[in-house]
Amino acid sequence: MVLSYNNFTGSIPQEIGNLPNLKTVYLSNNNILGFIPSTIFNISSLQRIDFSNNTLSGNLPVDMCTHLPILEIFFVSGNQLSGEIPSSLSRCGVLRRLRLGRNQFTANIPKALGNLTKLEQLYLSENNFTGPVPNEIRDLVNLEILAIELNQLTGFIPHAIFNISSLQVIALSYNSLYGTLPMDMCSNLSKLAGLYLSWNLLGGPIPRSWPRCVEAQIMSLSSNEFTGSIPEGIGNLSNLHILYLGGNRLTGTIPPSLGNMSMLEVFGIEDNNIHGNIPQELGQLLNLINLNLQVNNLMGEIPQSMFNISKLQELSLAKNHLSGNLPSSIGLLFPNLEKLFLGLNEFSRIIPSSVSNASKLTIIDLSNNFFNGNIPMTLGNLRHLQILNLQSNQLTNDPSIFELGFLTSLTNCRHLKELSIGFNLLNGILPKSVGNLSIFLQVFQAYNSSLNGVIPSEIGNLSNLAELSLGINDLTGTIPNTLGQLRKIQGLDLSGALIEGLIPSNFCNLTNLVDLILSGNKLFGPIPICLGNLTSLRNLYLDSNALTSKIPSSLWSLMDILVLDLSSNVLTGSLPPEIGNLKHIVQLDLSKNH
């Protein structure tokens, strides 16, 4: 009976048990719900059951294998089954493939599964199993795939598992397993293709026997507590495509032998304590698509050989101590680059205009370096650009052009979501064209970047803006009323920008506002009464201005506000008892008023 991939609904009829000669029942990938009828477990001729990817619920019967002596395949993955796995499952003595993943099974994995000595595939991932990985799994001498990811397992991984020479995949990621891996782990795993142990609590050194896993294609040990250095012989894993070692406590240097792993496509050792230079041998990895070395202690320059990796799509070297300059032809050398993360390093000199030749770029992060010179106008050619972060450098603007022309060029980047240019030496005027930036723009950060001139009213056209930061600049004029059109704004920082005039009353339309920071300006007049209606406000800084009149009583209704700073103004009046409404206040400063 093969009825998979239809649109069947309803439940499986109990009458299915009236088919005494049934060998195969495939009902996967339908919309079947309800319980699995107990009668089906009485059909002693059954060899194959596949109920995967439906909405079946309930428990498996305690005696489910009592009458299934020749069952070879039992697939129920992707349902809503619950309860414990019955120990009687071990009576299905010729079972070869067992898939129970993506359900709601609980309790410990039964030790009796070790009796299924014919078992080749064991899928228990994405359930709620607790307790240890049973030692008895070592008895599954024909096992090829062991997958128990995304559960709540604890304890040690039984070392005897690594003696099952038939294993091709070991997948135990996303649990709470701890302990070490045996140093001879790969001595008996000549067929291992995939090792998935990420997101556990495993520690100790990476086994020196790793190079013996010669068939390995994927090894993922990220987000654990492994220590020591990367084994020198790792370069012998010539079939490896993916190697994840990020988020551990590894030390030492990157072994030059990695350059021998010619099939490698993804290499990540981020968030460790790796030091030294990036070996030039990495430039031999011509199939590399994703290289992540960020958050380490690497130093020196990027080896020239690395710019030969034309297939590279993501390069993450952020938060190291790397220095030097970027090659003038970087965009031509990396034609497939989509994401470039070089922030928090010591790179210097200009940003090459050729970066625009990497036309697939969606993210550029060059923040917190020593780049200087002008921001290339050619960035506007990157039609797929979504995030541009250039903050905290020494970038300037062409002194012959008062306006920041690069912002006009960026209006061509119709998918831009985040633009950060703060903490630079731009010394220019925001052009009116800033209002033509991407309709998807959510973050515009130009804090402390030597801006001058007025805030263009056109900035109010950026209707999806959630954060606008123009503080600590040399701006003139008033706050444009059009900022009151930014209905999605959550953070507005105009502090220390030297602007004057009244606080626009239409700010009261900004109902999503969480942070309003207008400190250190020349604002005068009363505080708008309706600010008290902005119940999302958590931080309100109006200090160091020339605001007058009484503090609006409506402000005492902001029961969830954390910081209210009205100090250093010309406010008058007394404190009302309603001040006690500010139940969550952390900082209240009303000093230096009248």
From TrEMBL:
Membrane topology: Single-pass membrane protein
InterPro entries, sorted: Leu-rich_rpt, Leu-rich_rpt_typical-subtyp, LRR-RLK, LRR_dom_sf, LRR_R13L4/SHOC2-like
GO cellular component: membrane
GO biological-process terms attached to the record: defense response; response to other organism
Keywords annotated in UniProt: Leucine-rich repeat, Membrane, Repeat, Transmembrane, Transmembrane helix
Disease resistance R13L4/SHOC-2-like LRR domain residues: 217-413
Keyword match Transmembrane helix: yes
One Pfam family linked to the record: LRR_1
Compartmental location: Membrane
Top-level taxonomic group: Eukaryota
The keyword ATP-binding belongs to this UniProt entry's keyword annotation: no
Protein name: Disease resistance R13L4/SHOC-2-like LRR domain-containing protein
UniProt source species: Davidia involucrata (Dove tree)
